[in-house]
Design goal:
single chain, 1128 residues, Helix Hairpins, nine-stranded mixed β-sheet, six-stranded parallel β-sheet, nucleotide-binding
Length: 1128
C-alpha cells in the first residue's frame, strides 16, 4: 500500500469517527422570563409553543423581537452507538467508558413564531444515518458511508416546503439565511409542465407522493439531490400528510408557484412531530436499536431580522466530516500537499536521528538565535520587553524553514511562556518579507495579472477578479483554534492598542487603516493587521464593517482616494522610506553578526588553543625526550670512540712488537704464529669498536636531527600558540566591545540554564526599534500599495465580500486570488476548525500560505486536516501537558472503527492531538516526562520562560507537568498582594452528586474575604473540574458579587485555558462516593496544570485534604499550599 493510500485510509477512519460523534441535544431547563433559553420536552398531546393559545403567546416581547423554536426530534442516548459498533465490529474486551452518555437527536430544525420551518434550518443526524447504514448495506460494502450529503439535502428540501415562500437553492454549503429552498414545488415545477403545476400548487403534498413513486420506479434524476434517500422520502411523506390542498379554484387560471404556496395552510402539531419521529426511525431501521423517541424544543428570543437565519453550524453533526471526505479523495490521488503529507506520515517513516535537543545542546540555540537568523521585521512592541532566547529561536527557525525542509513546525508552549507574543513576531516577520517583495514593484498595478473571472451579481453588474503575481502570495496567515474564544483571544488582541504598548505612538502614527480597524474590531485599534472570521455571524459582521460601512469601510476609503489623489502616498516615496529602514536594519544586523562571529571565533580559538596547548605539551615532552636520547647517544658515541682509539692503539703497539727474523729463529719460529693470532684478535676488537662507533655515530646524527626537528616543532607551536592567543584576545576584545555597546544583549553561552534562557539575544534597544520600525514601514508600504492599486484591488475585495456574505460564488482560481487580496489588506485571519471548511469553501490544496494553530494540544488531529491541506506551511503551537481534545465518541467505539479501517493505534483521537502529531516531526525540540508511560516524549521547540505566575503556582505547574526542569521562572517582581495561598480544608462528606454544600459555604466566605481585602471581582476566577460544581459555584458567586461575575468568571477548567487572573479559586467537589471522579482528575497532570497556571498572584483550593491530598499530582499541591481551616 502506498503512502497516499495509507494516508487516505487514515482520513477515512477519522471521518467515520466524526460521523459517529453527534453533538448533544440541549438538556431541559426551567422556564423563566420571556422564555429565552427555555428547553423542554414536547409530549404528543401538548400544545406547541408557537401556537397562539400557548402561554408563551401571552408573554410580550420588546419591539422588533420574536421567538424561534429549535426542534430536536428522535432523542436517543449516545451510549447505544458504541454498543452497536461493538456488536457489528467486535468487542475489544475492555471495560466500557465511564463518561456520561448524554442524549442527541435524529434530526433538528427551527420553527418561527408562526409555526413555519425556517428555510435550510433542518439537520439530519449523520450518526443516526450512519447507524442505519450498519444494517444496510453494512460496513463490508465499499461505499457504506457514502451518500449522506445527498440524503440530508433531500431531507432539507422536503422540510423547506414548510417554510415561508422564497425560492432558491440548497446544497451542502447552504448557510444561515442564504439560498433557502422554500418550496419543493418550485423545483418540481421546473421539471413538470402544464397540468403538473396544479399538483405543485396544491403544495408539497405532491412531493411526498413524488418521492415515493420515484423511489419505487428507480428514478432519481427528476429533481437531482432534492429527492431520494430514506430520510428525504420520509420527510416528503411527512410534509404530504401535514399539508392540506387549497380550496378548489373557481377559474381555470393556473396560479404561480409562489401564490400557490402562500395559500397552503398547515398545523405543525406535537402529535405530527412524534409521528414523524416514529416513521423516520422505523425507515432508518434504528428505532429499536437506539430506543429513539421524543421531541425536545429550545426557545430563543432574537431580533426579527435574524429570525429567518438559522445557525449555520449543523445542530447535530460534526463540522468537518464532509471536508474530510473531500480531502480523503484528493489524498488518495496524491494531491495532499507537503504540509498534510508530512502530518499524516507514519511514525516509522519519520527521521529521528537528526533530532537536536535544544536543552542539551546550547550551541544549537545560540547559532539559531544569531543576528543573521533574526527576521528583519519585529512586532511593534515595547523594546523593554523583547523575546527571550527560546522565543527568538522558535521565531527564527520556523521562518527560516521552507515548505520543502519543514512544512510543519511544532512549538511547545507551556503555560505563561508567551505563545501569543511569539506569534506576533511571526506575523511581523511575514508581513515585512512581503513588504520587501512589494518594494521590488516599479508600479503597484504590476502586482496583478489578467482577469481570472467576472463575478456576476444582480442585473448586469459584474465584478472583475484579477490574478495576483505569484511572488506576492504565500504570505497569507490563517490562525485556527478549537474554540471561538481562543481565536478571538489572539486576533482580537493583535490589533488592539495594548499589543503595541511602548510603541503605541509610532504604531498609531503609521495609521494602517486605524479607523477602519477600530470599526472592525469594535474597540480601539492601532491597525488592521488581524480579524476574526470563522462562522457566518463573524463573516457577515466583518464584511459589513470592513467593506460596506458608510464612512469607514474600505470601499469608501478607495472612493475617497479617487476623489483626493493628493492624499494617496507617492509610491516611490513609500518604497524609499521602506528601503531606508531596511538598509538600517541590514547594517545593524551586520554589526551584530560580526559580534556573533567574534563569539563563534572565540569559541573556535578556545578549542584551537586547547588543541595547540595539548600539541605543545606533547612537543615539549617529545623535544625533551629527543634531547635526552641524543645526549645518551652522544655519551655512548664518545665511549665508543674512546674504545675504538684504544683498539687502534693496541693494534699499533702490537704491530711494533711483531717478532723479527732472529726472534723467530730463536723461538724456532713459534713466536710468529702466536703474534699473528694476537694481531688477529686485536684487529677483530678494533673492527667491532669501529662498527659500534659508526653505528652510534649514525644513531647520534639521526637523534640530533630528530631533536632539532622536535625543537622546530616546539618553536612553531609556541608561535602558533601566541597567534591563537592573540586571535582569541582580538575576538574577546570584539565581544567586550559588543557587550559594552549592547549591555545584556550579547548571549553568554556558558552561563547557567536560567540565566541563558532569561536572556534576550541581540535585543538591544537600537536594533529592536529599527526592526519594529521596519515592520511599521512595511505596513505603510502595504497601505500605499493598496491605495495606488485600488483599481485592481477593488474588484477582488468586492468579490470576496460577496463570497463572505454568500451573495456570489467564484471558481477556484478567482476565489484564491480574491482571498489572497484580502490577506494583502488583513495579514492574519482567525477561524475555528469547525468553521474553516465553510469559510474556505472552494479553496483547494495549498491555496494559502500559513496555517498557525494556537492551543494545538486541545485539537484532535483530524480538526487540523482542512487547514493543513489548504496551506503550504503550518506552525502548531501548544502543549500536550495542558487540556486535551474533547472526543465525544467513547474509546471502545473508536477502537472498533480503527480495527475496521486497519489504522494504527497511535492515530486514535482519544490518545493523541494535533500538537502531538506535529511534535513527532520536529527536528529541534526536547524530551519531556510522559505522565502515562513514566518515560519521555519528544516535543517541538520549547518556550521555556514562564512570566505569569508567582510562586508557588509556578513550582506546582513545573513539578506536576514538566518534572521540575522544563520551565524557568521569569515572573518579574511585583507589588505586594493581599492574602496568602492556601488549601481550605473542608471536611464535610455530605454531597449532592459532586457538589459539596460545605465547600459552597467556604467559597462564599472566601469571596467575601477577598472583597474585603480590596480584590476586585474582575481579578478573580472560580473554577472546578466538574460542571455541576461550576454551576453551583455560579449560584454562590452571584450571591456575593453579581450575575455578571457569575457568568464571566465562574466555570469549569476547560473554560479558562488562555485566560489568567490575579486570584484563582479551585473548588474540588466530590463527597464520600467520589473516588472515581477524584481519580479522573488526578490521573493526568493536564487539568491541574491548566487550573493552577491561571493564577498570577494567589491560589486557593477548596476541598477535603483527606480525600484529595494523597492522590497523584494533588500531593504536590498539598506540599506547596498550607492547610487552612474551613472559613464557613
Amino acid at each position: 500500500m502506498s503512502k497516499a493510500e495509507r494516508a487516505a485510509d487514515l482520513l477515512r477512519f477519522w471521518r467515520t469517527v466524526e460521523m459517529f460523534s453527534p453533538q448533544p441535544a440541549p438538556k431541559p431547563s426551567r422556564f423563566s422570563g420571556d422564555g429565552h433559553g427555555w428547553v423542554f420536552d414536547l409530549e404528543p398531546g401538548d400544545l406547541t409553543p408557537w401556537h397562539e393559545d400557548h402561554e408563551l403567546a401571552r408573554r410580550r416581547l420588546p419591539p422588533r423581537k420574536t421567538r424561534i423554536f429549535t426542534i430536536f426530534g428522535g432523542l436517543y442516548s449516545v451510549s447505544g452507538v458504541p454498543r452497536e459498533l461493538a456488536r457489528v465490529f467486535g468487542d475489544d474486551g475492555k471495560p466500557a467508558d465511564a463518561r456520561p452518555a448524554g442524549e442527541t437527536a435524529v434530526f433538528a430544525f427551527t420553527v418561527n413564531s408562526d409555526g413555519h420551518v425556517v428555510a435550510n434550518s433542518a439537520t439530519l443526524s449523520a450518526c443516526a444515518w450512519a447507524m442505519s447504514r450498519l444494517v444496510a448495506p453494512g460496513p463490508r460494502h465499499p461505499r457504506w458511508l457514502a451518500g449522506f450529503e445527498e440524503d440530508e439535502n433531500a431531507f432539507i428540501s422536503a422540510l423547506n416546503n414548510l417554510s415561508p415562500p422564497k425560492l432558491s437553492k440548497v446544497g451542502p454549503d447552504t448557510e444561515a439565511g442564504d439560498d433557502p429552498r422554500a418550496g419543493i414545488g418550485h423545483a418540481v415545477g421546473e421539471h413538470l409542465k402544464g397540468a403538473a403545476l396544479d399538483a405543485v400548487a396544491a403544495g408539497a403534498k405532491a412531493s411526498g407522493t413524488a418521492v415515493k413513486s420515484l423511489a419505487a420506479g428507480g428514478v432519481t434524476s427528476f429533481a437531482g439531490p432534492i429527492l431520494g434517500g430514506i430520510a428525504g422520502n420520509v420527510a416528503g411523506t411527512f410534509v404530504e400528510k401535514l399539508l392540506s390542498p387549497p380550496a378548489k379554484r373557481q377559474d381555470t387560471t393556473k396560479p404561480s408557484n409562489r401564490t400557490a404556496l402562500r395559500s397552503v395552510r398547515f398545523d405543525l402539531t406535537a402529535s405530527a412531530l412524534h409521528e414523524f419521529v416514529e416513521d423516520l426511525a422505523q425507515a432508518l431501521g434504528i428505532g429499536e436499536t437506539l430506543r429513539i423517541a421524543g421531541i425536545r424544543v429550545k426557545c430563543t428570543v432574537l431580533s426579527e431580522q435574524s429570525a429567518d437565519k438559522p445557525n449555520e453550524q449543523g445542530l447535530l453533526n460534526s463540522f468537518i466530516a464532509a471536508d474530510l471526505a473531500r480531502i480523503e479523495k484528493e489524498t488518495k490521488k496524491g494531491n495532499a500537499g507537503d504540509a498534510l503529507s508530512a502530518f499524516l506520515s507514519d511514525s516509522d517513516d519519520i527521521t529521528v536521528t537528526d533530532r537536536i535537543d535544544v536543552r542539551e545542546h546550547r550551541s544549537a540555540l545560540v547559532a539559531g538565535a544569531a543576528p543573521r537568523r533574526i527576521p528583519f521585521g519585529r512586532w511593534a512592541g515595547d523594546p523593554a520587553k523583547p523575546l527571550v532566547a527560546s522565543q527568538q529561536f522558535a521565531v527564527n527557525q520556523l521562518l527560516a524553514e521552507t515548505p520543502e525542509t519543514a512544512p510543519v513546525f511544532a512549538v511547545n508552549g507551556p503555560p505563561g511562556t508567551g505563545k501569543t507574543t511569539m506569534l506576533r513576531d511571526v506575523l511581523a516577520g511575514i508581513v515585512t518579507e512581503r513588504g520587501r517583495r512589494l518594494a521590488s514593484l516599479t508600479d503597484p498595478l504590476d502586482a496583478f495579472g489578467e482577469v481570472a473571472e467576472h463575478l456576476q451579481l444582480s442585473g448586469n453588474y459584474s465584478i472583475p477578479v484579477r490574478r495576483l503575481r505569484p511572488g506576492l502570495t504565500g504570505f497569507e496567515m490563517v490562525l485556527a483554534t478549537a474554540t471561538n474564544d481562543a481565536a478571538a483571544n489572539v486576533t482580537g488582541e493583535i490589533p488592539g492598542l495594548p499589543a503595541v504598548g511602548g510603541l503605541a505612538g509610532e504604531a498609531l502614527e503609521t495609521d494602517y487603516f486605524r479607523d477602519l480597524a477600530t470599526h472592525v474590531l469594535g474597540g480601539e485599534a492601532w491597525g488592521l493587521v488581524a480579524a476574526v472570521l470563522g462562522n457566518m455571524a463573524h463573516r457577515s459582521a466583518f464584511a459589513e464593517r470592513f467593506w460596506w460601512a458608510d464612512e469607514l469601510g474600505m470601499k469608501q476609503v478607495f472612493r475617497d482616494a479617487g476623489t483626493e489623489p493628493d492624499e494617496i502616498p507617492v509610491w516611490e516615496e513609500a518604497v524609499g522610506r521602506f528601503r531606508k529602514a531596511e538598509t538600517l536594519v541590514a547594517t545593524l544586523t551586520e554589526e551584530r553578526q560580526r559580534a556573533a562571529d567574534a563569539m563563534q571565533d572565540a569559541a573556535n580559538w578556545r578549542k584551537e588553543l586547547l588543541a595547540i596547548e595539548g600539541a605543545l605539551a606533547r612537543a615539549e615532552a617529545d623535544c625533551e625526550s629527543r634531547r635526552t636520547a641524543a645526549a645518551r647517544l652522544d655519551v655512548s658515541c664518545r665511549q665508543a670512540h674512546e674504545m675504538l682509539g684504544r683498539a687502534e692503539r693496541d693494534c699499533a703497539e702490537h704491530l711494533h712488537r711483531k717478532p723479527g727474523f732472529w726472534m723467530l729463529l730463536s723461538t724456532w719460529f713459534k713466536a710468529g704464529p702466536q703474534w699473528t693470532k694476537e694481531d688477529e684478535a686485536l684487529r677483530a676488537v678494533r673492527e667491532r669498536a669501529r662498527q659500534d662507533f659508526d653505528s652510534l655515530r649514525g644513531d647520534l646524527a639521526q637523534a640530533q636531527q630528530l631533536a632539532t626537528e622536535a625543537q622546530q616543532r616546539r618553536t612553531g607551536l609556541h608561535q602558533t600558540l601566541q597567534e591563537a592567543r592573540a586571535n582569541l584576545a582580538a575576538a574577546l576584545a570584539r565581544i567586550e566591545e559588543a557587550e559594552a555597546r549592547w549591555p545584556g544583549a550579547v548571549p553568554v553561552e556558558d552561563s547557567d540554564d536560567a540565566t541563558f534562557q532569561l536572556s534576550a539575544p541581540w535585543a538591544d534597544e537600537e536594533y529592536l526599534l529599527a526592526r519594529s520600525r521596519l515592520f511599521l514601514e512595511a505596513l505603510r508600504l502595504h497601505k500605499a500599495f493598496l491605495l495606488n492599486a485600488r483599481r485592481s484591488i477593488r474588484g477582488n475585495l468586492d468579490a470576496i465580500t460577496a463570497v463572505l456574505q454568500r451573495k456570489g460564488e467564484l471558481k477556484a482560481e478567482a476565489l484564491q486570488a480574491a482571498w489572497q487580496t484580502l490577506f494583502l489588506v488583513v495579514p492574519m485571519i482567525s477561524t475555528t476548525f469547525a468553521s474553516l471548511p465553510r469559510l474556505f469553501t472552494g479553496l483547494g490544496r495549498e491555496a494559502l500560505g500559513w496555517l498557525l494553530v494556537d492551543e494545538a494540544g486541545q485539537a484532535t488531529p483530524q480538526q487540523a486536516v482542512g487547514g493543513l491541506w489548504r496551506c503550504r506551511r503550518a506552525v502548531l503551537v501548544g502543549d500536550p501537558q495542558q487540556l486535551e481534545p474533547i472526543v465525544t465518541l467513547p474509546l471502545s467505539a473508536q477502537q472498533a472503527l480503527r480495527r475496521h479501517h486497519d489504522v494504527a493505534e497511535e492515530w486514535l483521537p482519544e490518545s493523541t492531538s494535533a500538537q502531538k502529531v506535529a511534535d513527532r516531526l520536529a527536528r529541534h525540540g526536547t524530551w519531556l516526562p510522559d505522565p502515562e508511560t513514566d518515560g519521555d516524549t519528544w516535543v517541538g521547540a520549547p518556550l521555556r520562560v514562564h512570566r505569569r505566575c508567582d510562586r508557588p503556582m509556578f513550582d506546582i505547574s513545573n513539578r506536576i507537568a514538566y518534572g521540575g526542569k522544563m520551565m524557568i521562572h521569569g515572573t518579574p517582581q511585583r507589588a505586594p498582594f493581599p492574602g496568602e495561598n492556601a488549601w481550605l480544608d473542608v471536611r464535610s462528606v455530605d454531597s449532592d452528586g459532586k457538589w459539596v454544600p460545605a465547600e459552597g459555604r467556604a467559597l462564599r466566605a472566601l469571596l467575601r474575604e477577598l472583597g474585603g481585602q480590596g480584590v476586585s471581582p474582575a481579578d478573580i476566577r472560580v473554577i472546578s473540574p466538574f460542571l455541576q460544581v461550576a454551576r453551583e459555584s455560579k449560584v454562590v458567586a452571584r450571591s456575593v458579587f453579581d450575575g455578571q461575575f457569575a457568568r464571566d468568571s465562574v466555570g469549569t477548567v476547560h473554560t479558562v485555558q488562555g485566560q489568567e487572573a490575579d486570584v484563582v479559586v479551585i473548588v474540588l467537589g466530590t463527597g464520600r462516593d467520589g473516588v472515581g471522579a477524584r481519580n479522573w482528575v488526578a490521573g493526568k497532570p493536564n487539568l491541574l496544570n491548566v487550573a493552577v497556571s491561571r493564577a498570577r498572584r494567589r491560589l486557593y483550593v477548596i476541598g477535603s485534604r483527606a480525600n484529595w491530598a494523597g492522590l497523584r499530582h494533588l500531593r504536590v499541591m498539598a506540599e506547596f499550599l498550607p492547610a487552612r481551616g474551613d472559613l464557613s
